[in-house]
Write a structure and sequence with these properties.
single chain; Glutaredoxin; 41% helix; alpha+beta; 81 residues; 3 helices
């Protein structure tokens, strides 16, 4: 499994759920707290190449997956194969 990168805020429940999903599946991940890193949604948009309205924003390797719902679906699809 490639490295998962989760951009979000510690106060975000969906961000915490994405972290728990990675931990439960033993997926290697990096948590990037946007507040601690002084990052804005515009900073994340530059990295992923699309506007950002919500967090978390999740990448697997260099591939943009989406928010928590899309990431959970991505993990389910991996497990089904």
């Amino acid at each position: 499994m490639e490295q998962v990168t989760i951009y979000g805020r510690s106060s975000c429940g969906f961000c915490a759920s994405a972290i728990r999903l990675c931990e439960a599946r033993n997926m290697p991940f990096t948590w990037v707290d946007m507040i601690e890193q002084d990052m804005t949604k515009a900073d994340i948009a530059e990295k992923i190449g699309r506007p950002v309205h919500t967090v978390p924003q999740i990448l697997v390797g260099d591939k943009y997956v989406g928010g928590y719902d899309e990431f959970a679906g991505y993990v389910r699809q991996l497990e089904a194969n």
